[in-house]
Amino acid sequence: MEIVTGGAGFIGSHLVETLIEKNKEVLVLDNFSTGKIENLKEIRKRKELKIKKCDLAKHGIDEKFKNAETVYHLAANPEAGLLDPNVHFKSVIITFNVLEAMRKNDIKKIIFTSTSAVYGDAKILPTPEEATLRPISLYAAEKVASEALISSYSHTYGFDAYVFRLANVVGKRSNHGVIFDFIKKLKANPKTLEILGDGTQKKSYIHVSDCVSAMFFVKEKISKGYNVFNVGNFDSINVLEIADIVIEKLGIKNVEKKLIGGKEGRGWVGDVKFMQLDISKISSLGWKPNLNSKQAVEKAVLELLEDFK
């Protein structure tokens, strides 16, 4: 049995679908604070799938992990802005509880979704895995702390661990991020688009299908040890370019772009303005994304427009 924490979320639901396609038995553990049962509607009736509402921050979760072979740990709050710090600390507690449940049930394999934000304002672009971690947001700090816990359990208890530092993942079922926000704003007011920051923020984007394929690719290629991989793209795209793509796909004309520049032109406090991951480590194994950043954004816009209907 495979366990997916946060399996009703954006990336989690796509990962669960892939596991079911591989005829795996899957247990989804989700508190449904951000995840939605509707995200699993296409596979909900499959006999291989079980879904349990569960608060992983509480004690008493060990029993739920019995007989599992692998844990895909995706449970987290996806908002990277100024949330109550306790929300992010709770995510670290969840990681600890998951690792303890694994230890007590002798589960030796964990896959964890981290973020490119752990590098902060990186000194080197594209940024390799060996770069210093300098988180500038609570969300990124939460991921760094979870990575450290997973590394310690891997080396202390012999877990095989896979940490994936993800670029901006986009696609169907996403309910946050720049593309979702732009579509939502333009649906409400097609004449004016408010853009956070100065519009020059430039980052790497990856479609969720490529993200999930990368995770399975690495897991099949490497079977042991503690492993960290950047998962992103070979290129990047800025916010104004994304705005133009969304406007074009919506078929709207004469949209006024209103820039709401924050400090140093960032979108919000803790926003990393420029991000591109060095993905040579994973590409040296033979993986590469099917879609570049622009193509990933274009496909995601069309998919989210369907979600908005």
Structure notes:
With 309 residues, this protein is of the alpha/beta class. It has two domains: 195 residues, Rossmann fold (3-Layer(aba) Sandwich); 108 residues, UDP-galactose 4-epimerase, domain 1. Helix content is 35%, strand content 19%. The chain has eight helices and 14 strands. The strands form four sheets. It has a seven-stranded parallel sheet, sandwiched between helices. Strands 12-9-14 form a three-stranded mixed sheet. A two-stranded parallel sheet has the order 7-10. Strand 4, helix 2 and strand 5 form a beta-alpha-beta unit. The model has no long low-confidence stretch (mean pLDDT 95).
Query: How large, in whole angstroms, is the Cα Rg?
Result: 19 Å
Could you say how many structural domains there are in total?
2
Low-confidence stretches: none
At the fold tier of CATH, the topology name of the largest domain is Rossmann fold
Measure the end-to-end span.
35 Å
Percentage of β-strand residues: 15-25%
In DSSP terms (H or I, runs of 4 or more residues), the helix count works out at 8
At CATH's second level, what is the architecture of the largest domain?
3-Layer(aba) Sandwich
User: What class, by secondary structure content?
Assistant: alpha/beta
Let me know the average pLDDT.
95
Strand order, sheet with most strands: 3-2-1-4-5-6-11
List the defining traits of the structure above:
seven-stranded parallel β-sheet, three-stranded mixed β-sheet, 8 helices, 309 residues, UDP-galactose 4-epimerase, domain 1, Rossmann fold, alpha/beta
